[in-house]
């Protein structure tokens, strides 16, 4: 994915790829600090992003009968606070990926 070429990985954790793989993404989910601030910054600059699964599955209403509570899956709970889905679709042009990547890199240089 081209985002991997442009986004500074010291600020953003992205899915890893190898030369032996061919991935087709329906979402491109990254993990970031200050996720909500970044999401707002992107929105102010004309880029929509999404938070898929803001509530970990073990804390969702449908999972109540399983008996899990906050703190049972700390990694999952931490990730739910950091995940952000970046724009991705078959019509996304390279110049748009570059623009989004530059915005993300600039955000972390500012904050």
Textual characterization of the structure:
The chain is an alpha+beta fold and 111 residues long. It has one domain: Aspartate Aminotransferase, domain 1. Helix content is 34%, strand content 10%. It is built from four helices and three strands; from the N terminus they run αββααβα. The chain has helices at 3-6, 35-44, 74-80, 94-110; strands spanning 12-13, 28-32, 83-86. The longest helix is centred in the C-terminal third of the chain and has 17 residues, at 94-110. The radius of gyration is 16 Å and the shape is globular.
Can you say what the CATH homologous superfamily is? Aspartate Aminotransferase, domain 1
Overall tally of structural domains: 1
**Biggest sheet statistics:** 3 strands, antiparallel
Strand order of the largest sheet: 1-2-3
Taking all Cα atoms into account, the compactness measure Rg is 16 Å
The arrangement of helices and strands along the chain is HEEHHEH
Q: How much β-strand is present in the residues?
A: 5-15%
Unreliable spans are none
- What overall form do the CA principal axes indicate? globular
Number of separate strands = 3
Number of helices: 4
CATH class: Alpha Beta
């Amino acid at each position: 994915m081209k985002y991997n070429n442009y986004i500074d990985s010291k600020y953003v954790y992205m899915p890893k790829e190898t030369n032996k793989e061919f991935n087709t993404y329906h979402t491109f989910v990254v993990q970031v600090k200050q996720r909500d601030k970044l999401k707002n910054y992107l929105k102010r600059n004309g880029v929509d992003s999404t938070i898929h699964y803001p509530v970990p599955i073990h804390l969702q209403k449908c999972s109540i009968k399983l008996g899990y509570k906050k703190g049972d899956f700390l990694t999952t709970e931490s990730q739910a606070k950091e995940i952000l889905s970046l724009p991705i679709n078959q019509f996304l042009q390279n110049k748009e990926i570059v623009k989004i990547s530059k915005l993300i890199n600039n955000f972390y240089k500012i904050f």
